[in-house]
Design brief:
Strand content: 5-15%
Number of helices: 9
Number of strands: 8
Order of helices and strands: HEHHEEEEHHEHHEEHH
Largest sheet: 4 strands, antiparallel
Structural class: alpha+beta
């Protein structure tokens, strides 16, 4: 091996060792697997916590509606002072006062058990269950939304780490290149302008590296806050995610899964069922109500006799109550029409949701396959750029190519590697978009 090539390789190795052993960040790093990202994101999402409260409210509403099946029980106690009655024997003359007990007491218990309310109670309970189902589906929908947002920022972070790696590699290459150029300038083989241009390119790479590191800190803090972690942690994503192969099914299969699993479609279906249930609630006003009533009263004194007797009297009763609202015959007709129109509206909304599913799944499916094709093309481009740089570098050293050609080749190599990294992260993101649009995230 020629001495010069041996020396060049030693310099490159030393630079790489320095880069890998020098601490990149003063802040603490934390390796964050993808599963932990989703788990912590869902556990600490304020939006999901709020949705879960809606589910709890719906559960309480169900219990409240079920309570209407139970009887109403009233207990009353009444006590007071009774004044002496005045009896006028001739018009308003000859007043006479009769004996009367001074104190009255009344204790009563009343019970009313609904027997039939035209379906109001049953349909109200069904409505509460449907509202709970909608609240539960909203939780699932929000979870998928949160996961997609998190994976987007997670992949941004992963792309930045890969970008940092590529730029550091380019810096090491540029430093080695600059060393060789300075040696050539000392020997009078090239001018100092070539040295200045190489130094300018190196400064540009170092500036890009600094900006990348800053972006890593910013996005790490965003994810830290979302996951309720220490805000100063620098998160390290799974680098193997970019090279993972995902199994892709047919477009029709994703549509079938979306129609079965997509939360928004299930929510639309629940709203249709809710609107139909509301028709039953409105129609229940056309029907009579039946209730069983019972009561018991213990009172003193007995005022049904003259003079009143200072004694306790106990009375009880059982009755069947039937009521019918005649006004419902002319008021309810319009309410029923409105309720039916709401059903039509909800059916239209469901059809719109199904249309959106097809367009979203199609877009995600095409974009993912497009991203995979882009990876194949850019993988070839990276190899071509590397080979192009090697050829131009040799030409430059042999004074066949000018420095501008070499710098262009170096920039082209860096750009190709960065584009490949972006394409790989985009392929992962479009895959999770496909999962989300088909209701599988």
């Amino acid at each position: 091996m020629p001495l010069k090539i041996y020396r060049d390789n030693i310099i490159k190795i030393c630079i790489l060792i320095f880069i890998t052993t020098t601490p990149t960040y003063s802040q603490t790093t934390y390796v964050l697997p993808l599963d932990s990202l989703f788990k912590l994101g869902i556990e600490n999402s304020l939006k999901i916590q709020n949705s879960k409260i809606d589910v709890d409210i719906a559960n309480n509403d169900i219990n409240d509606k079920k309570g209407y099946r139970l009887p109403d029980i009233n207990i009353g106690v009444n006590g007071g002072y009774i004044g002496e009655p005045t009896i006028f024997q001739h018009g308003l003359s000859d007043p006479k006062h009769s004996d009367m007990p001074s104190w009255s007491q009344n204790y009563n218990v009343g019970l009313s058990q609904p027997l039939y309310q035209g379906g109001r109670i049953k349909n109200s309970i069904d409505k509460a269950y449907l509202q709970k189902e909608i609240a539960t589906l909203n939780v699932k929908s929000n979870q998928a939304e949160i996961k997609l947002l998190l994976i987007n920022r997670y992949l941004d972070l992963l792309r930045l780490f890969k970008q940092e790696e590529v730029i550091e590699k380019s810096i090491a290459q540029s430093k080695s290149q600059l060393h060789d150029i300075k040696e050539m300038a000392k020997n009078g083989m090239i001018t100092n302008s070539d040295v200045l241009r190489s130094e300018l390119q190196l400064s540009s790479y170092e500036l890009s590296l600094s900006e990348t590191k800053n972006d890593i800190i910013i996005i790490s803090q965003e994810i830290d806050i979302a996951l309720a972690l220490n805000e100063d942690l620098i998160l390290i994503p799974e680098s193997s995610l970019l090279d993972k192969t995902f199994f892709i099914m047919s477009y029709d299969r994703y549509i079938e899964m979306a129609y079965r699993n997509y939360p928004e479609l299930k929510i639309s279906q629940s709203y249709v069922a809710l609107a139909k249930n509301n028709i039953k609630l409105v129609k229940s006003d056309y029907l009579p109500s039946f209730s069983l009533k019972a009561g018991n009263t213990l009172s003193r004194p007995i005022t049904s006799t003259s003079p009143a007797k200072d004694l306790y009297a106990n009375n009880w009763n059982i009755s069947l109550s039937i009521s019918y609202n005649l006004a419902s015959l002319y008021h309810n007709r319009w309410k029923v029409n409105i309720a039916k129109q709401v059903v039509d509206q909800q059916n239209i909304e469901m059809q719109k949701t199904m249309q959106n599913i097809r367009t979203n799944v199609k877009a995600s499916f095409i974009k993912h396959n497009e991203a995979l094709e882009r990876i194949k093309t850019l993988t070839i481009s990276v190899k071509q750029a590397e080979e192009n740089y090697r050829i131009v570098l040799n030409k430059y050293k042999n004074h066949i190519a000018i420095l501008t050609d070499l710098l262009d080749a170096s920039s082209l190599q860096l750009e190709a590697e960065l584009q490949l990294t972006t394409a790989k992260t985009n392929a992962v993101y479009t895959y999770y978009q496909l999962l989300c649009s088909s209701g599988n995230l």
